[in-house]
Amino acid sequence: MPAGAVEPPPAAPWAPVFDLALYPAVWRASQVGGVARPVTTSGFAALDAQLPGGGWPHGVLTELLLPEPGGGELRLLAPALAAVAAARAAGAAPADGRCVMLFDPPALLNAWALVQCGLASRHWLVVQGRAGPGRAGPAGAIAPGAPRGANRLAPLLPSADLLWALEQSLKSGHVGAVLAWLPLNLRADALRRLQLAAQSHAGPVFLFRDALARSHPSPAPLRLLLQPAGIDQLSVRLLKRRGPALAQPLRLALPPVLAPHQQAQAEARQRALLSASVSLPARTPPDHLTARPPDHRTT
To answer: Of 196, 194, 201, 179, which Cα lies nearest the Cα of 97?
Structure first.
């Protein structure tokens, strides 16, 4: 180096410049990814913190897997469904887009319970597509070799008409939210068609399936396993999301449906059952089973 020359500073270590904010479809495996489309808050801060984008995503399938229907899944979605209806009523979306469509719910809806959860049943439209007795619907969308009627959420096979109506509702642009109860043995290509149709839908799409479906592949970007965890308590395990797996399930407190005095009675009964199971003495076998047999040996 010539005399008097200044030595240049050492070069900084090279690092690739990549702004993830410019590419919503790309995320780091160690971080919860974002979403390019709007989301609706779940109403549960602990759950929103774990959902990509901070809420239920729009325009994609969200699979909710259940061991049995009626374990609190509608109460889990109640804040989001109320928010969808409120957004339409406030003019954030067309007035004809306020309805919530339900496909093949496993039981009749209780309007009183919906009101207790802050939901207006006049905005709900139920599509019952199951074939009646002796009129089994086409089973083209059901995987071959799967046991018929084995699923507890949708014990009858869905007809092709039901799947067509579900797909058309997603493409229509006039529905606020869609909820569908589908069987365990639904074909993978039928799920892919629903995922493609959901991309045209400006709202959340929830598919309820049996918990056994967790071992089956699914095009849904978000999958959760729901399990009851006590009175007005729900365990939520994130099986699939854009980001790392969640080590422990979330425990969420659901909005109560019972009146305060009924809630107190139910909690008292649960405490009594728990205390009885703890204090129950061990069963002592009968004497004739524990007595030593006589010794007939001679000395």
So the answer is: 201
